[in-house]
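> tool_call: predict_assembly(chains=four)
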Amino acid sequence: MREDRRLRRRNETVQEILDTAIEVMAEDGVAGLSMAEVARRVGVRPPSLYQYFPSKMAIYDALFERGVRESADVLEPYSARLAEDPRAVIVAGQQASVAWAMANPVLAQLLYWRPVPNFEPTPQAYEPSVRLLEVLRSALQAAVHAGQLAAEAADDEGVALYTALVSGVISQQLANEPSAQVEEGRFARLTGMAVDMFFRYYAPREGE
Amino acid sequence: MREDRRLRRRNETVQEILDTAIEVMAEDGVAGLSMAEVARRVGVRPPSLYQYFPSKMAIYDALFERGVRESADVLEPYSARLAEDPRAVIVAGQQASVAWAMANPVLAQLLYWRPVPNFEPTPQAYEPSVRLLEVLRSALQAAVHAGQLAAEAADDEGVALYTALVSGVISQQLANEPSAQVEEGRFARLTGMAVDMFFRYYAPREGE
DNA sequence: AAGAAAACCTAATGCCAGTAGGGAAGTCAA
DNA sequence: TTGACTTCCCTACTGGCATTAGGTTTTCTT
């Protein structure tokens, strides 16, 4: 049963390839990923990579999935605390999301933009991001129940507006100051205000 | 003085190349632009393109400039009307901007994202976009003077928040429904609400 | 130690961006 | 009209890319 020795080695190689791909994309742009360059850095000839991924798109897909999973992991601890003070938890969770995006600009671009011609994530890679949207909706719902938001904030339109708002902050940060630190990011710093703005817009009517 | 006959022909060719490039990018993605494919469609061999543009990046640069100029043209008639009712004019101008972005997704991606590895607009191509930002600021300033916004709305932070907000709407629309019509765009439809949200956040204090 | 499976290789195909250098055609001055 | 000059477009080429085909070495199991 030491068949999984091989399997472990294999998974290590897969991860090394993905890490290297991120490195290359950080230097040459997301759409500038080159199988040949990855191979060079991993210390292997280009065709050998095809033992691990059937195409360059498959690497993008695996990284998209990693991005979705990591950003879900970032939010998880917050979603567990929603019972407390939903608004405060949402603000904190959002700050954490933005911080993650800035620390992982390559993955964030893959999630928030469409930087690679002809790349569309497979449903399997995409699926966790649907769950992510549900997490967001239930967070807003919790704020509604706590009397911190009007009911419409958690309907389709409200959720869309929220995502536009925060993806705008991330998008502007990535486009204009791609390599800033979180605290100094001219746009990232606006995260708290952005969420406040949303809460004020959807403030519950007095006396209900 | 019929030297400009040649010059006119030349400019026509330049424009034809740019139009074709947009066409190719619309089909194969912004980063998927191929000189060879453009040449094929224009009816010429690839090296001939280098008579008109010294490199592929020069085409991106020219298109970036075109994008900035066109979106400035869209806004111009509104900025002339700022004296009336600034808020209404800002809303209308913003709707027009979003409509332009959806009608010109390729140029919009060039302006709002960073889709091409190693492409950074030259200062000359970028410069009009600085002016654009000033137009926005003075529009917000006008709303401040009309008592429709608090003074902070027109400071650096306020302007940044505004741009994040609307670029978020455009960004989400481009990423998720790239080929929708304006009216049906799930995110584009939020433009009015987004601007309202901004105005409510920066509502002037009562009695001042 | 033998044999199977996995990992890696070389060689090749058909793309691409960009360069070098040459020939045809338009333009201008006389 | 002729000759010189310029512009335009071409073929040929270089070096890079993703990917496929098919063979060789390494590794693990029995």
